[in-house]
């Protein structure tokens, strides 16, 4: 029985079906509901490396703070999409986070947010194991010196392992040298992704 869905419907009975509520109902009605319980995700503990702190955070709590980091990431690595609007849907990130399907790991120094890795979590229909798929992995240039990036990726891997993921999928852009970095960390080149921006025709 999907108690989350039943409770949501009871609470909102008689209210207009606004987009936010409709999205909440869709998440609650999904075939497995919450994928990774919050109690499991919260096992991820902070770690330090030199003067950096790596930790689990909730995008729900740092939404305003993370926006400039997302913008910097977009400006640096997403040139192929700059004809499209930059308009992240933070409410959807939060819904996925609440459903145990999105995890945000951060890198800070002196309390300042300098990097993040956001992972979508899902269960493979082919293997029935948990797959972590990178949505964002970005460090500001000042956090790329030394071995901070290498240690941060190791922290991400350990966090995914801790919550039960068997596989990590990361994409790298041709605009930078990240592919070489990840190969040195044991990631294999297993596919090529292609992108096409569709022109909107006036009807």
Describe the structure.
There is one protein chain. By secondary structure, the chain is α+β, with helices and mostly antiparallel strands. It folds into 2 domains: 1-33, no CATH class; 35-184, 3-Layer(aba) Sandwich (Aminopeptidase). It has 7 helices and 6 strands; from the N terminus they run H-H-H-E-E-H-H-E-E-E-H-E-H. A hairpin with a 2-residue loop joins strand 3 (102-109) and strand 4. It starts with a helix and ends in a 19-residue tail after the last helix.
Key terms for this structure?
203 residues; alpha+beta; Aminopeptidase; 7 helices; 36% helix; 22% strand
Mean pLDDT: 91
In CATH terms, what is the fold-level topology of the largest domain?
Aminopeptidase
Q: What ranges have pLDDT less than 50 throughout 5 or more consecutive residues?
A: none
Counting structural domains, the number is 2
The CATH homology group name of the largest domain? Gcn5-related N-acetyltransferase (GNAT)
The dominant shape is globular
Tell me about the biggest sheet? Answer: 6 strands, mixed
Q: Can you list the strand order of the major beta sheet?
A: 1-2-3-4-5-6
Residues in β-strands, percent: 15-25%
Write the H/E string, N to C.
HHHEEHHEEEHEH
| Count of DSSP strands | 6
Class from helix and strand fractions: alpha+beta
CATH secondary-structure class of the largest domain: Alpha Beta
Helix percent band: 25-40%
Distance between the termini: 46 Å
The number of helical segments is: 7
CATH architecture assignment of the largest domain? 3-Layer(aba) Sandwich
Give Rg in angstroms.
18 Å
């Amino acid at each position: 029985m999907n108690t989350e869905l039943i409770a949501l419907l009871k609470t909102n009975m008689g209210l207009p079906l606004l987009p936010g509520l409709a999205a909440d109902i869709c998440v609650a009605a999904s075939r497995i509901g919450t994928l990774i319980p919050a109690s499991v995700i919260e096992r991820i503990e902070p770690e330090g490396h030199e003067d950096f702190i790596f930790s689990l955070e909730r995008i729900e709590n740092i939404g305003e703070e993370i926006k400039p980091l997302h913008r910097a990431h977009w400006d640096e690595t997403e040139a192929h999409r700059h004809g499209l609007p930059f308009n992240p849907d933070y409410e959807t990130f939060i819904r996925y986070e609440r459903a145990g399907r999105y995890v945000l790991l951060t890198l800070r120094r002196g309390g300042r947010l300098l990097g993040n890795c956001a992972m979508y979590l899902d269960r493979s229909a082919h293997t029935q194991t948990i797959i972590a798929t990178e949505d964002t992995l970005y460090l500001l240039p000042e956090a790329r010196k030394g071995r901070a990036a290498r240690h941060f990726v190791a922290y991400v891997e350990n966090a995914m392992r801790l919550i039960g993921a068997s596989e990590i999928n990361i994409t790298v852009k041709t605009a930078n040298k990240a592919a070489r970095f990840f190969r040195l960390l044991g990631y294999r080149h297993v596919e090529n992704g292609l992108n096409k921006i569709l022109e909107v025709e006036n009807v």
